[in-house]
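Running this now, will post back.
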Amino acid sequence: MNKSQKGGAAGLLAGLRKLNIPGILIGNIVLFVLFGLANERFLSSYNIMMIFRNTCTLLMAALGFTLVILIGKIDMSVGSVVSMAAVSVVVLYNAGVPVALALLLPLLIGIAVGVINGLLIAKCNFDFWVVTFGMMSVFAGLALVTTDGNTVAIKNDIVNWIGNGKIAGIYVVIWITVILAALMVWIQKKTKFGYDVFALGGSQAVASVSGINVVKTSIIVYALSGLFAALAGVLGGEAADYQNALSAGTSTFAFIQRKADTAVADQVRALDLKGIYFIADTKRTYPNGRVGAQIVGLTDIDGNGLSGLEKYYDDILSGEPGRYEAERGRDGTPIPGGVHEETPAVDGQDIIISVDIELQQYVEDRLLADKEGLTSNGGSSVVMDAETGEIYAAASLPLLDPNDRENIPAGATELKVVTHLFEPGSIFKSVSAMAILESGTMTPESELFCPSEIEADGYIISDAHDRGDATFTLEQIMDQSSNVGISLATENATANGVSGFENLYNKINEYNLHTRTGVDYPGEGEEGTEYLGSLLPFDKWGKVQAYNISFGQGVSVTPLQMTRFYGALANDGVECTPHFLIGKPQSGETPEYATEKVIGSEKALSDMTDMLKTVVSQGTGTDAAIEGYNVAGKTSTAEIYDEVNGGYRKGVYNMAFTGFIADSTGPQLVCFVGANETEYGSIVTPVFKDIMSTAIDRFQIMPE
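Update: finished.
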């Protein structure tokens, strides 16, 4: 080195000393330059941005840790607090805690940990190594137990914006880190607390003599350390999402991200990273959004059915995966002729379903429209062709939006008209009345004395509406929905040596109201049995149970079971298997479904239909009437069993209406509308009217 060179080097070092630039920073600058010279992409704005973004977690934790070092101590719990804070956010949010609170609580936990550390070290004079190591062990263990060693994730727009959003082209998390770093520098340089920290680090004894509250300052320092550690956990951690996959030694191949957006893929491709490859893939979209989504269902990332028809027909829709091998050199260069296709993929089949998309959309929109009724605790509806069993529309609240997989409400993936049992209440009176008519013991005009209440096994049976003693015809029992009337009429329906109650039990089974409908949708009953719903064996029926069952309490069914039964009333006594699948275009197959004649008496069917028309024209179902058409149906206001306390809940009911258009041409549509856990009132009948009116226009149904 000549003199001028020596002077230049010395001058540079002297200049750096005057600038008071730490040696570690100088070293990092040198490394940046060297890496930049080795790879021109290293110093690109994108790469530098990503470096700063990925180190924000460490920088955040270091802000508080620095204060601990300044007072001459160590905080070994920082790393585990970072982990536990990150885990806590996910656990809290996925448990239903609002996102703001899910972000705040881990910060408070971090502060609490710091306060405990500070108290034990400064107040109780415990060794800081022992205290913070203990805290490290505790929170590392909690994080491990909580996650069971697995990666946990959170999907929320706010959290995603904090981690991935940008302001003026710079990641939000970087802005937060820079602002907090500047704030900490100001605190250290310009505030009394900062002076106290430096004094405490110089000599605790001198600081104490100088009037500095050593205990208070130490507690605040450790609290800030815990806070910044927790903040690091809340704001950082993306890199850990990929660590397990990339570090696994059991495979030479791992997906870093499936179904990535093309814009993200292009950014990664621009980095020209060795060993990173890109495979073209498909992405499932739902052009109709939530419309029919509960019926169609969801798939996982590999296309396997998770719910709905996607799950039920998974073996048809998924096809068979193919397999190929690709050989590459050590540097990732493809080897000529190194691609070997072993098994070609076989496409899955398409299926054609019966759902009318326009009617389906209207049904969903109509269910959502009644904010005070149906949507308070859920509602549902199904429209089925009684002559074929084809389901034209079906939905239950809450609805499913497959394009928003991050915010799926509980129960949204189920079609509750298929999967959920309920005590049907008065819509079940049609079953009892049908059994009575078939027994021949009463006609619609037959009269029966119906007191205001009756006693059975120590219980009192009364109607939903207060009334005095009265004499009703069977038709009036139905249109006034009298519990007392249908109970006594059922009891008196003894014929051919079979009691009225046993006749009802037999007819429930003949009408298939205790067996699966056979609908092609997952979740209908338990595997391994054809039974569906609850029905006491007849030898367990007491008088009160028999009375209750006659008006739809003490027995459970699904909405689709009731829809199938009312479909038989509209279809000359023939029940059809409800279904969605109507064709497989590739094979040309048209599936056939079972039908069964469950009601043989044409006179009983005609009388039953007339009584149901009276229910709508002058009884409890007048709000379901459609001008120019004969609507036949039955209302229901069912009590709800209290599974906690026993008995029935007070003040809330399951309400329903099931009906069809009688004396009409075109499809013989039957419609069920239900509202769950709602206050008493006419809610479902207007919804039925609107849905069936739309269906009339849609399918050009005309009165005879």
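The first helix runs from residue 3 to 19. More later if anyone needs it.
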